[in-house]
Amino acid sequence: xxxxxxxxxxxxxxxxxxxxxxxxxxxxxxxxxxxxxxxxxxxxxxxxxxxxxxxxxxxxxxxxxxxxxxxxxxxxxxxxxxxxxxxxxxxxxxxxxxxxxxxxxxxxxxxxxxxxxxxxxxxxxxxxxxxxxxxxxxxxxxxxxxxxxxxxxxxxxxxxxxxxxxxxxxxxxxxxxxxxxxxxxxxxxxxxxxxxxxxxxxxxxxxxxxxxxxxxxxxxxxxxxxxxxxxxxxxxxxxxxxxxxxxxxxxxxxxxxxxxxxxxxxxxxxxxxxxxxxxxxxxxxxxxxxxxxxxxxxxxxxxxxxxxxxxxxxxxxxxxxxxxxxxxxxxxxxxxxxxxxxxxxxxxxxxxxxxxxxxxxxxxxxxxxxxxxxxxxxxxxx
Length: 382
Ligand SMILES: [Zn+2]
Fold this sequence. Notes:
alpha/beta; Structural Genomics Hypothetical 15.5 Kd Protein In mrcA-pckA Intergenic Region, Chain A; 8-stranded mixed sheet; 13 helices; 5-stranded mixed sheet; DNA polymerase, domain 1; globular; Rossmann fold
């Protein structure tokens, strides 16, 4: 009898045989259907998973068509996930595709729980960071990938086994913010001036601020439709601001295909139980070289550290809740930490920790939009 998957079922290596039934019962969640996401979704659809859950809040643009192979000219202006679903179903009618035309933060956690593995094809640090925190908190393997012109990387994150994203965050992204509570509109103006962004009226800045756009990063990730509802803000203005804060990176289809190939392959290996090669692959398309990193997980990682390994927060007994927030913000590069203590009760910032009744060895919870679930940390009041 003819079998769509006949040739891949012949694979048998290092004592592990290809188990197509296992794949046919597996669900992968793909965050971002750009160049990498299109390729990885295509690979996994053709190879016969049960289901793909694809998430993307963008629409197809002309400049996507040189490398995002699930889209056609007539898709311009349509949500990427809708066009992708159509093509994937045509390539393999037996696969289920579930689409979410929204940002990952708005997708219910049950959808992530339903998946056996996450793939990130996102183009930004914040999204990866959020997905990583979710992977660690609900214990799902997470295969991250990124490219830059001829260069690319793939990371295999097995929570509590391999390093998570916070164990070795990208250096250039280890930004330190003070607590945003104390920010003023003038801080945003100064920040934008560093990007040579001028001409925003005080009124616009104050309106941005009141809507929660308090840093350049808030503007970088803002949605066009949200910003143009502000009087005096046009689509052209938003585009020029975002281009200055985060210029588009070079991208070529060939590198994306190579990196997505590795990302999909690592996904299959995790699902089927083949041995992993490395926790991180780096590719240099100019020299043609790969290198591999096999770093240890950081046992004291604030995110993936276990209960026994939690780093304590050392804090002065006269410190206020605000002081604690600043310390957390600087130590973990979390720009907007909220702190909860006992029953998730939010605390006033001016109160001193001892007035709140906090004692050494007690737990607090960090809550932030950058992490999917509250993170428990132990206090050491000195
Ligand atoms: Zn970690």
